[in-house]
Amino acid sequence: MSRLTEYQSELIQTTTCELTLLRKGHLKCANEILRFRRAGMLMAHMIECLLEEDDYDTDMANYFMEQLKELTRRIAVNRCIQTYC
Asked: Could you give the C-alpha distances from 2 to 8, 10, 34, 65, in angstroms and in order?
């Protein structure tokens, strides 16, 4: 699923912002982004594991993919990223 790779890439890109936040002393915001990113990477890993099964549940994979999409959207519009990055 190319969408999965796209979402993973977006999550990895937040690392730059997270580092910027740390350098500027915005620890609370950096921690918030870290929590979102960790949750997203965990969800992406769950999707990868699910897709490796021969008879994976398409509905479940689509559900997790939508959740990951929503999470990456929430990161993009996060006030910390909008304000400091």
From this structure: 10, 13, 24, 11
